Amino acid sequence: MSVLAFAEQRGGAVRQVAFETLTAGRGLADSLGVELVAVLVGPPALSSEAAGLGKYGADRVIFAGSESFEEYAPEGYTDAVAKAAGQTGAKAILFPASAQGRDLSPRVAARLGAGLATDVTQVSVENGRIVAVRPAYGGKVLFKVGFKAEPALLSLRPRAVAAAESPRDAQVTTLELDQPRELTKVSTATGEQKERPDVAEAEIIVAGGRGVGGPEHWALLEELADALGPGTALGASRAVVDAGWRPHGEQVGQTGKVVAPPLYFAVGISGAIQHLAGMRTARCIVAVNKDAEAPIFKVADYGIVGDLFEVVPRLSEEIRKLRSQE
Amino acid sequence: MNIIVCVKRVPDSESRIAKAADNASIDTQGAKFVLNPYDEYAVEEALKLKEGAGAGSVTVMTLGGDESKETLRTALAMGADQAVLLKGEPSVDGLGTAEKLAEAIKGREYDLIVFGKQAIDNDNLQVPVMVAELLGVPCANVVVQLEIDGRTATAHREVEGGHEILEFGLPAVVAAQKGLNEPRYASLKGIMQAKKKPLEEIEVGDAESRLEILEVTYPPEPTAGEIVGEGADAVPELVRKLREEAKVI
């Protein structure tokens, strides 16, 4: 019996969310008294990365390699994970709630006839039963859910679990696959990969609202993000996205992304309920707004009341100064 | 082109959400219910595709109670041709609902099934891909751009830091993300016509839940912190606090 952890990779590189998934899987496997098995799916050359997953707690690794797995292949990946689950008698299967994990996990659930909890922030074992906590209604409430049968499938919200090393010598076995199904051919759009991380996975988010005044002023926020470092993403309120100032991929809130970074800057964002629901679990919230009565100050750890056109450039300058001293 | 659009009735995103007295469900008293916002993109895309093809029909479908008829009428008012109400309770997780939908769709002729990428109540993001998997057809999820040429479709979907391009054949499932299109408003004429459009009701029974909600809680109420000061002069103190107190930079 096992806990199975899907180790996500893209473009031949194992992603940070894979280490978070393994870390959560390690804890769950210990609670259940079973082994943690990582499943890595990708092109044949990726096999060199497999043994390294032992660093984050995998007792062993199942590698499913195929030339047709150069890019994410929905049906082929589904077959591989479902087969690995069968072989190892999986009691639980963990995925990251990333773009790939959110596509793959429901497919595997449908294949296995299993229950899936999406966007889980905590997983534990109570009286031998796997329970999970997950936000619903855009983060306005938390559901504690229990599984009625096994395997229990869970997708973990990025950054909800901090990756922790727990090294061991992981044996690697290769999964024999039949000719993979391929109903969908996936390729990566070229020329638009952003340098910044995605808002859902960033360590720091600099988010702008209507108070920024227009898309032409976003350079101010970009400058702050650059000063803070490469783990910083730009975010936006719904009003800003609806106005067409920023792409919807940056929207934070109930109809955008629900985020939980260590540090969140809300610049010129008043704090509508559906925005607050999407970012209130950030560990530290900083608000800059000219209206001292703005609801954002009710959730902010630190606030500055003032003109963002003066405050933000000064903030960039002070942070650059700090970084240069490090 | 025959298109099925699957929709859901949900509380509006501005609604306050309260837990019920049993601490294990949601009290929806007082919530304003709407057509799930992502489903508006799905309905719009279906109408555009049908208009582009110059022929076919758009069927809007939901699993729910009698109150969901109002949601179906909203989609009919936008321009869908007919509606199907599968009478039964949706499941806590996505699979039970997906099974009911897939079962109902199986006997019908369709080129495309369109969903919103998620319903903003349970936020499961599960049902569209599950329906595709159950029907054995391809699925493009979180789609921001869709082109259909004959029996082949090309979709752009959002992934971290960019887009993936998916190519697949019809029939297929597509789940719409914000940005796919600009949903139309129902015209007065559309609203009047919606009342006369066919709405089929089928008893399907409640969907099976593989999960149960044990407890509903509220996220910890963030406590208001401090106003560090006013204007740019407060910045050095803020930076010091972020570094020394919060230890986040």
Q: Can you walk me through this structure?
A:
- The complex is a heterodimer of chains A (326) and B (249).
- Chain A is an alpha/beta fold.
- Chain A is 29% helix and 29% strand.
- Chain A is built from nine helices and 18 strands.
- In chain A, the strands form four sheets. Chain A has a seven-stranded parallel β-sheet with strand order 7-11-6-1-4-5-12, sandwiched between helices. In chain A, strands 15-14-16-17-18 form a five-stranded parallel β-sheet.
- In chain A, helix 3 crosses helix 4 and helix 5 packs parallel to helix 9.
- Chain A starts with a strand and ends with a helix.
- Chain B has 249 residues and is of the alpha/beta class.
- Helix content of chain B is 27%, strand content 33%.
- Chain B has helices spanning 37-53, 68-78, 94-106, 127-135, 188-194, 235-244, and strands at 2-6, 9-11, 18-19, 26-27, 33-35, 57-64, 82-87, 112-116, 139-149, 152-159, 162-169, 172-176, 199-203, 211-217, 226-230.
- At the A-B interface, helix 3, helix 4, strand 7, strand 9 and strand 10 of A face helix 3, helix 4, strand 9, strand 10 and strand 11 of B.
- Strand 13 of chain A pairs antiparallel with strand 11 (162-169) of chain B.
Poorly predicted regions of chain A are none
Order of helices and strands of chain B: EEEEEHEHEHEHEEEEHEEEH
Distance between the termini of chain B: 55 Å
The percentage of residues in β strands of chain A lies in 25-35%
Average pLDDT value of chain B? 96
* Helix share, percent of chain B: 25-40%
Which spans of chain B of ≥5 residues are poorly predicted at pLDDT below 50? none
Tally of helical segments of chain B: 6
How would you describe this structure in keywords?
heterodimer; A: 326 residues; alpha/beta; seven-stranded parallel sheet; five-stranded parallel sheet; 29% strand; B: 249 residues; nine-stranded mixed sheet; two-stranded antiparallel sheet; 6 helices; 15 strands; 27% helix; 33% strand; globular
